[in-house]
Amino acid sequence: MPIKLPSFRPRKDAYPADLWTKCPSCSEMLFNKQLDKSDRVCPTCGHHFRLSAEARIALLVDDRSFVEVDAGLQSVDALGFVDQKPYPDRLAAAQLATGMRDAAVRGTATIDGHRVSLCVMDFAFMGGSMGAVVGEKVTRAAEQALMERLPLIIVSASGGARMQEGTLALMQLAKTCAALERLRAAGVPYISIMSDPTTGGVFASYAVLGDINIAEPNALIGFAGARVAAGTIAQELPPGFQRSEFLFEHGFVDRVVARRSLRGEIADLLRYLVPGEQRPAADNGRSLFDPIGFLTSLADRVVPDLPAPEEAPARPTEPADDVPAARAADREATRG
Ligand SMILES: [Zn+2]
Q1: What angle do CA 71, 267, 210 make, to 5 degrees?
Q2: Pairing of strands 152-158, 190-199
Q3: What is the pLDDT of residues 210-260, one digit of tens each?
Q4: Would you call 102 exposed, middle or buried from its count of C-beta atoms within 10 A (0-12, 13-18, 19+)?
Q5: Which of 38, 56, 219, 259 has an alpha carbon 20 to 30 Å from 154's alpha carbon atom?
Q6: Distance from residue 22's CA to the centre of ligand 1 (Å)
Q7: Is domain 50-280 annotated with CATH 3.90.226.10?
Q8: CA distance 2 to 78
Q9: Rounded to whole angstroms, how far apart are CA atoms 198 and 274?
């Protein structure tokens, strides 16, 4: 007679990963569904977990008001980049895991009835790294904001520029900043929201250029990591270095806003920040403030009347408002 052994089911992990999440701040085990309901904020200690772009949009904008634009933009492997695996394989894996095409989603939506141009990053897609697609989406969001005179809102979550795209990723810093400068010159407001983490090239470009820079509590915000920073200045870093509250105390961030108050806070700001009237003089893409013209007129007023031209210095003088010529002369001067 065969002996019937008692069946031992394999013991399940005490906390299956798909059901529970351990809070890294207070070590409480949190039921995932409950965590999602509380917008991924720990109900015990208030730790803010990272949020997907989809959940972020749902949190911020009026119900069903979001209309996605440029959903089809996708990175190409222009450099044929291979690290541990080829870049196209990495992209495909990230797309499969997240259901997104790249690390940012953009479109228009209303927040408490105010129409805005919105771009939201997702850290789950290759660390929210900024390649050509993210840069292009941020730029187009700014351009649409400029064209339709809508306030621009960008939510950052990024480890920095995407190294697999090399120089093409670095170019996005200049491109996004230029688009934001045109927006600023036209008097269209831009609110930047920094979530955990906002670092590297994203921090070094559009994330901190907001008319108002908002950070979520305890988010890591900075350019290089703490170890590199400490090594560079050969000093111990102060407690709380590169966290939202530290940056707020030092004037780098305007507001630290808890996630549950974020939507209301932005709705309030949008009541104050109304896109200004179109200024006709700024149409050529240059800001109204012309530093060279300003300095020239200042010099005219401050410097006493110069002697007659024949006593002028031997160096040929350029017309002061000829910017390219002045720059070329500058370059010559620094080379010589
Ligand atoms: Zn907690």
Answers
A1: 65
A2: parallel
A3: 999 999 999 999 999 888 888 998 989 998 899 999 999 999 999 999 999
A4: buried
A5: 38
A6: 8
A7: yes
A8: 66
A9: 27
User: How is the chain split into domains, by residue range?
Assistant: 17-49, 50-280, 290-303+315-336
* The overall pTM is greater than 0.90: no
Q: How far is the CA of 245 from the centre of ligand 1 (A)?
A: 18
- Cβ neighbours, 10 Å, residue 90: 19
Residue 256 Cα to ligand 1 midpoint, Å, equals: 18
Question: What residues have their beta carbon closer than 5 A to ion ligand 1?
Answer: 23, 25-26, 28, 42, 44-45, 47
Say if CB 153 and CB 114 are below 8 A apart: no
Q: How much distance in Å is there from the Cα of 29 to the middle of ligand 1?
A: 8
Tokens of 174: 């200049």
Encode pLDDT of 66-97 as tens digits. 999 999 999 999 999 999 999 999 999 999 99
From the CB of residue 211, how many other CB atoms can be counted at a distance below 10 Å?
A: 18
The span from the CA of 193 to the CA of 161, in Å, is: 18
